[in-house]
Amino acid sequence: MEQPRTYNLEPKRVLTFAGLSVFVLFSLLFSLLLLTPIRYSLPGYGTVEMRREARLNQLRLESMSDSLSLQDAYLNRLRDMILGNVDTSAVASSVDESNLNTEGSSLVDLPLPLSSGDWEDHSQPALSISSLNTSASAVFNPPEAGPSFLSALSFPVLPPASGFLTRDFDARTSHFAVDVAAEEGSVVRSIGDGYVVLADWLNDGGQIIAVAHSGGFLSVYKHNSRLLKQMGDRVRDREAIALSGNTGEITTGPHVHFELWHEGLAQDPRAYVLGW
User: In this predicted model, what pLDDT tens digit does every residue of 32-75 receive, in sequence order?
Assistant: First the structure.
């Protein structure tokens, strides 16, 4: 008759086996909770993650709201500038006339820098561009016209920059322009004679320059890497006014954002530019 088996359990080995079993069990449970979607059911974990996502979404919405507000303000300023609805009374009334007396002041002898080389053209009383002599031909410049002569835009005009169209005019989405993909640093040229009425940095458009032409036309060039003209400068047809770039927040790559306005209304540049 076979003898029954007997086992001798040592307390030290039993404790070691139990400890290893507990360690392996907790490791598997910990990995299951942290490396699987079950972690979102843990109290507090999902709340922290949701708060972080909510905060990021709030920041994105605030950034978009600020960009839209700046764009609306820019369009309003541009519309007022085109229509001539500029109220200077508030600025004039805020100036203390007693401070305008500079007699005996050393400031009188200080030379003031000129913002534009064509500042004399703006001396008062200044004639509006629409009242200046114009010509039906953009290349004909009669000598008797004098320094105030501005050639009228002769449509279709040549493109302001070399490249290809990547986005068309769409008033429904407030894209009052066409986008021309151009290599960064390419020359941007004025589509005609005129005066620079805006040369500044804007949050959405980056380095922007605008030229007022005869006949109530205004051309705008955005996202430039460098401006070659200042506000008040007089420019001629096909004169270089900027270098293309990718500045500003609302941009997807190097291109020229070209707008054309007439008497306060946006025009589709494709109907006025040769080859578009």
Answer: 777 777 766 666 666 666 777 888 888 888 878 877 877 777 77
Q: In sequence order, which residues have a C-beta less than 8 Å from that of residue 89 and are 6 or more positions away?
A: none
Indicate the DSSP class of residue 202: E
Instruction: Look up residue 185 and give its amino acid.
Output: G
Q: Which of 11, 42, 10, 73 is nearest to 202 (CA)?
A: 73
Residue-range definition of the domain harbouring residue 225? 164-271
In a domain, 205, yes or no: yes
The answer to whether the beta carbons of residues 262 and 152 sit under 8 Å apart is no
Among 64, 255, 68, residue whose Cα is nearest residue 174: 68
Flag whether 239 is in a domain.
Answer: yes
State how many domains the chain has.
1
Closest CA to 156 of 34, 19, 267: 267
Residue 143 is assigned to a structural domain of this protein:
no
* DSSP state letter for 216: G
Instruction: Judge whether 55 lies within some domain.
Output: no
Q: Based on DSSP, count helices (H) and strands (E) in the chain, helices before strands.
A: 3, 10
Alpha helices (H) along 84-120: 89-93
- Express each pLDDT in 18-33 by its tens digit: 889 999 998 888 887 7
Q: Could you tell me the CATH number of the domain that includes residue 219?
A: 2.70.70.10
Omega within 30 of 0 (cis) for the link into 43: no
